[in-house]
Structure formats: structure tokens, C-alpha cells
Amino acid sequence: MVLRQNAEEGWSVMGTGTIATEHMVAAIRAMGHSPLWVVSKSRADALHFSNDLGIPQATTDLERVRSDPAVKFAYISASLKRRPHYVLAAADAGKHILCDGPLSQDSRTAKRLVKHCADGGVLLAVNQPLRASAIHQTMRRLILEGEIGLIQSLSILRGGPFQPPPNRRSEMPHNGGNVYLDVCAEDIDLARFLTGAEPVEAIAFAKESNGSPNHLAYTIRMENESLLQAHESFGTADIESMVVAAGTDGVLIASGTLSSRGSGVLVRRLAGRNELVPVRERDLHTATLEEFVGAARLEASPLATGMDSFAALVATEAVASAARTGRATAIRPSASS
User: Fold this and answer.
1) Keywords assigned by UniProt (predicted)?
2) N or C end of the chain: smaller count of CB under 10 Å?
3) Which CATH superfamily hosts domain 7-122?
């Protein structure tokens, strides 16, 4: 069955690098929407991507996309440095925006993007796959419903050699990974999502390799007095990721949910006994898109907003400062409100 292509629900795809973009294009079509444009700073890349995925138009000229009334939504999967450029262009054209996270390389730029979109009356949502995980959504529900009592701590463990996101072009360069922007911001966002609490203070220790941090351990005090404890490393052997939420009455343990290898498993520990929590798997890309489109229609809330990305970057910068100075660093509460 071929889904009807709805000109009133057209999309532009800005950035062509990662394999995940192809999955998002498939999810756009599965919803009955139409990917109409591919935008890239490289005309050859735009043409290759559009030909591979059957998207009718490719360009390096943003004005052509901005002026197309059929385009209602923009999905931005460009490099971190290029994301602000595309966000501002799409917002100025009145397009609702779903952007890969984090929004930018620093919280100041992210805050500017959030304000610009709000002033323009367009939705700015962020693609945070960890929020779309059915296991993490189940954990959030169980925590907020008090199923493990009062949350005391959230521990996140992951490590292994840096793995750049799978790219369509094998020659695409990468910088060896930034443990703060590639991992720390994502984990802090997950902690905010799971606990519903904001970070207020950080202590951290980091180890450098070739002049940049690649091995990081930190603790963040949350506003509800729970603690986020994280171990994130590009300098260890591969570790099966774990997210452990410990409450006064029980514990939730998610294994293997922070990698792209599978959806993982969720175990609940109560009264000294472990039980597997059944979770129905759901496609991450479809879940993200459904919430985004619902939010654009004022029928739902996006899984992650631009403000969520800003708040995670503020806390990430505090972790980096704490690791650099060796002192506890306050996380500005007014900055993430």
C-alpha cells in the first residue's frame, strides 16, 4: 500500500550524514507525510541522498526551501556546527523544527535558538532517542508513580572506544569524540527526563587523552535531593550500559539501553527479588515524530524541547567546569527555567 503524499505535510531534510536520517525519512513517509527537499552545503551530497531515498528535490540554496509553502516541517541532522544555521533559517521561514541533539556546542547559542523560535511562533523540538526508548519511558512512569518509593539516586554507566555515528559516507571525518557533547549532555537529559528534577550542583573528575577529556566521572545533586552519578568513557573497553534508579522501596535496572545494538531489558528489584518488566518495543523514530507532529498541532508535547537541550548543556558546562577546577560547581537554576 502506498501512502498518500500530503502536500500540506511536507518536510525538508537538512543534513545528509548519518544513517539515522534515512530511518527518519522512512518514518516521515510511514506517517503519510512527504519528504520534499534535501538541503546540504554539498550539492553532490544532497543529490546522492535525494536519489537514494527518492526525495524529489535537492539543493544547497536554503531560500528555495524557505519559500516553498508545501514545507511545514524541517528535520535537521546536520553537523553540530551547522545546526544553528539551519535552525535559524527554518524558524525565519515559519517551519516547525525537529533537530538532532544537542542543539549547539554551547548553552548560550542554544538559548538564542530557543528564544528565536519562540519569538517566531515555531515549535523547536529536539530528537533525543533515549527519551523515545520504551524502556526509559516505562522507567519514568514507574519512578513518577512512586513504584520504587522516593528516588534516591540515578546511576548511569557506559564506556568503550569512541564510535562515531554510522555515516552514509565512510570518508566523513570525525574528531575522535567529545565526551561532554557526545555523551554527558545526553545522559543529563535522560536524568532530567526520568526523575522530573533539575540539576543544581556538580562535582566531576576527568582524564585526558591527546589534550581532550575522554574519561569522565561525576555526581550531580538534583533539586529533589536525589543524586545523579555517571561514568562515561571513551578510554575503556566496551561496557554493557546500565541505568539504575534506586528508590527507598525498590530499584529499576535498565541494561543495554544506551547503545544502538538493541532495545535492552528492564528489571525491577523489590524485597530482594528481581523481576523482568515486560516492555513492548516501539520504533524510536516513529515515536519521536508522532509526538513532534502532535505538538505542532497543539495536541501533545514533544518528547524533548529546545529548552530541554539548553538545560542539559547548562549542566554539562557545569560538569566540565567542575572537572577543570576540581571544585563543586553550581548549576544556574534560573538558566534552565
Assistant:
1) Oxidoreductase, Plasmid
2) N
3) NAD(P)-binding Rossmann-like Domain (3.40.50.720)
